[in-house]
Design a protein that fits this description.
Elements (H helix, E strand, L loop, with lengths): L3 H34 L7 H13 L2 H33 L1 H16 L2 H12 L3 H25 L3 H9 L4 H39 L4 H10 L3 H30 L1 H9 L1
Length: 264
């Protein structure tokens, strides 16, 4: 047990080192592109950070962060709850699964811009249109993950649990839940990325505040540095939500994965 702690620390350092290397490589390519094509077409990292600092000092960034965050997270939460529940039911019931799968496929095939147009027609311009668009575009993703988790449950383990007469709660916590979580969490991570992108896209057309509205204003003013600053802000928020919320929750829900990585 003691010997595994250093190996986990080394694995963590290597993981952070790999992530930092990727970020630095991306920034270097970004800087090269700015030098090659000019700062008007592609502002460099320093230009984007300077523009972001200006937006922050003007008080525009804080309000935009709050508006986009609650719209994206509310739509994501609603889709996660509904999609996971429906997916589990569809995975456990073949009849319900056959009925819901075509609906999920149709919803997944509708582009986000079409949902935005429909949401504006149904709810008018405002936050409701953005939240609904996020929910409609991310629900099929969470549904598919939960359904696959329920469909691929190992029936032999279930039979073994019945033979050994495990209590229902223990059977659920030790056999059913870990397997389902291993499918649901990757779907949630994917849905979270989609939620942020769709929320910004919806704000671009349907709201007067938020990061998307800031991008729209930058487009009107032909301010490419401000546009890049808003994009940097979106990416930072997405990384914060994923690594500050979902990844820690996944580590707590899937301790066996961390133990397996530490063993290597």
């Amino acid at each position: 047990m003691k010997g595994s702690l250093p190996s986990r620390g080394v694995a963590t350092l290597l993981g952070w080192g790999g992530s930092l290397t990727g970020i630095l490589l991306f920034v270097a390519l970004w800087e090269w592109g700015s030098l090659a094509y000019g700062s008007f077409l592609l502002p460099g990292p320093r230009d984007a950070l300077a523009a972001l600092a200006g937006l922050w000092q003007a008080g525009e960034a804080a309000g935009a962060i709050w508006a986009t965050t609650w719209r994206a997270m509310l739509g994501f939460a609603l889709a996660g709850l509904a999609g996971t529940a429906l997916g589990l039911l569809a995975g456990m019931s073949r009849t319900l699964g056959r009925a819901l799968e075509p609906v999920s496929t149709v919803l997944l095939g509708i582009p986000p811009i079409a949902w935005i147009v429909l949401a504006i027609l149904w709810f008018g311009s405002g936050s409701m249109a953005a939240v609904y668009t996020v929910m409609a575009t991310t629900l099929p993703v969470t549904f598919a993950g939960a359904q696959m988790g329920a469909l691929t449950l190992d029936r032999r383990l279930q039979e073994m649990a019945e033979v050994f007469r495990l209590p229902p709660l223990m059977r659920f916590m030790d056999i059913t839940l870990p397997h389902i979580v291993s499918y649901v969490f990757p779907a949630l991570v994917t849905a979270l990325g989609v939620a942020w992108k769709v929320a910004v896209m919806a704000e671009l057309f349907a709201t007067e505040d938020g990061i998307g509205a800031g991008l729209a204003m930058a487009r009107v003013n032909l301010d490419t540095a401000a546009a890049m600053a808003w994009i940097v802000l979106v990416v930072a928020l997405l990384l914060a939500a994923e690594h500050g919320l979902l990844r820690p929750l996944q580590r707590r829900m899937e301790p066996w994965r961390q133990a397996g990585r530490g063993g290597h």
